[in-house]
Design goal:
By secondary structure, this protein is α/β, with parallel strands linked by helices. Among the domains are: about 90 residues, no CATH class; about 90 residues, uronate isomerase, domain 2, chain A, CATH 1.10.2020.10. Helix 17 links the parallel strand 8 and strand 9.
Length: about 475
């Protein structure tokens, strides 16, 4: 057998593309109908971003980020995962390397992200915030870092002005029940034109299996001025914090769960589980699920009483890499899609609340694409005619937040429900530069309708279809949340 010899090393060079070749006015819009729908009906609408993880503190202080690493790479676990895949050392990701070196590593990564949504998001964000239309790569990394830093170091690029630049009308951060909401209070007193609200996220209050559960309850009790010695005390503390949030303008809740819990339980059982956990005894998985079911039902009834919207993000398998979790903590890029069963417990939970007429407006999200049709049909079971789109299947989430994932979600919702009732897109992001994701969604949505018109599957009634597009992009959410 012969030996294959390589006499010359392979050199990969990234050549610059035409500046207008990727992000141009008709990006993702494949025919004239899609173009007309987007440009005449979708593009100029304000944004309602009803779920994100932005920092209320940074907004209240109107922080000016000094360079693109601070505003664009820090905290973005999507980018971190891509960089790790390329074998980039952690010091350039979450470590102590200088900001410019971290940016160089990200710029090196970008050309390798083709066909990942990061490639589109990156260049949309560069163009929409900084009027930079060239592809980012290692050859221009230093120049881009300097140019963007110069722009960012001005009042025009403060975090509030980054929000205003994208015409964000409302945004909702995600806040723990123990949060003082001092930053939200400061924002409410400011002249910031964007309404900044919050979503009550009580995950730690029902995660009884966590080893530091009672340490958290100590903080919760202090915030609510309640000594939490029983399940009833826990409910009282949560009720007081919900009232406090409501008084500060909160109208949403949010929950991150592997699956909804809807186990049968009695009051005696729940109190006994709480007592055993408090005494340091082991509780079974079934007992933990009973306890979580009790807390979630209490919360669901309370949300209905307050007139809130409840959101449930279901199916993520979090913190898979225990070594890196110990080093870096949660939300640092070690999560994946889980394969938890959803239908039976989700149906039972919603039905239990609906049976006693205590089902609040509800948004459910799945991260496993296997569950698309499940979610699309589940919402129809509890849309009872009382409110348009009372129970919503939320936009494609996390690992599905890309062109194919959004397209599949929109198609399943169209086929098995009414896409015309859909409340549209959100960022679910920690980045102040993430709002072009709404544009990305709107272009994909308009292109879907445009394709159907061109194929003769929908009439070329652009005024009517344009109205549906506007409802999905903005007006349905505006009516649904009634901020």
């Amino acid at each position: 057998m012969g030996v294959l010899e390589c006499t010359k090393p392979t050199v990969i060079v990234f050549y610059p593309m035409n500046a207008a070749s990727l992000i141009h006015e008709d990006f993702l819009l494949e025919n004239k109908y899609a173009q007309l729908l987007y440009h005449e009906h979708a593009s100029k609408l304000p944004i309602i971003d009803y779920h994100n993880h932005l920092s209320p503190k940074d907004l209240a202080e109107n922080v000016i980020y000094r360079n693109p690493t601070q505003v664009w790479i820090n905290g973005d676990h999507y980018k971190w995962r891509a960089m790790r895949n390329l074998g980039i050392d952690e010091k350039y990701i979450t470590g102590n390397a200088p900001d410019q070196e971290k940016f160089q590593k990200w710029a090196y990564t970008v050309p390798y992200t083709m066909r990942n949504p990061l490639y589109h998001w990156t260049h949309l964000e560069l163009s929409r915030y900084f009027d930079f239309f060239d592809p980012l790569g290692p050859m221009n990394a230093d120049k881009v870092f300097q140019d963007l830093s110069k722009q960012l170091n001005t009042e025009a690029f403060s975090c509030r002005n980054l929000i205003s630049k994208m015409k964000v009308e409302v945004l909702c951060t995600t806040d723990d029940p123990i949060d003082s909401l001092e930053h939200h209070h400061k924002l409410a007193q400011s002249d910031f034109n964007t309404k900044v609200s919050m979503a009550f996220r009580p995950d730690k209050a029902f995660s009884i299996q966590n080893k530091d559960y009672f340490e958290y309850l100590q903080h919760l009790g202090e915030a609510a001025s309640v000594e939490i010695a029983s399940f009833d005390d826990l409910c009282e503390a949560l009720k007081r914090r919900m009232t406090y949030f409501h008084e500060h303008g909160c109208r949403l809740s949010d929950h991150g769960l592997e699956q909804l819990y809807a186990e049968d339980f009695s009051e005696n059982e729940v109190n006994a589980i709480f007592k055993r956990k408090r005494e340091g005894k082991t509780i079974s998985a079934h007992e933990a699920a009973q306890f979580q079911s009790a807390v979630l039902l209490f919360l669901g009834k309370s949300y209905h009483e307050l007139g809130w919207v409840q959101q449930f993000h279901l199916g993520a398998q979090r913190n898979n890499n225990s070594r890196m979790y110990r080093l870096l903590g949660p939300d640092t890029g070690w999560d994946s899609i889980g394969d938890y069963p959803q239908a039976a417990s989700l149906s039972k939970f919603l039905n239990t609340l609906d049976t006693v007429d205590r089902l609040a407006k509800t948004i459910i999200y799945n991260v496993n694409p296997r569950d698309n049709e499940l979610m699309a049909t589940m919402i129809g079971n509890f849309n009872d005619g009382s409110i348009k789109g009372k129970v919503q299947w939320g936009s494609a989430w996390w690992f599905l937040d890309q062109k194919e994932g959004m397209t599949n979600q929109l198609n399943a919702l169209s086929n098995m429900g009414l896409i015309s009732c859909f409340i549209g897109m959100l960022t679910d992001s920690r980045s102040f530069l993430s709002f072009p994701r709404h544009e990305y969604f709107r272009r994909i949505l308009c292109n879907l309708f445009g394709q159907d018109i061109e194929k003769g599957e929908l009439p070329a009634d652009l005024p009517w279809i344009g109205k549906l597009i506007q409802d999905i992009c903005y007006y349905n959410a505006k009516a649904y949340f009634d901020f």
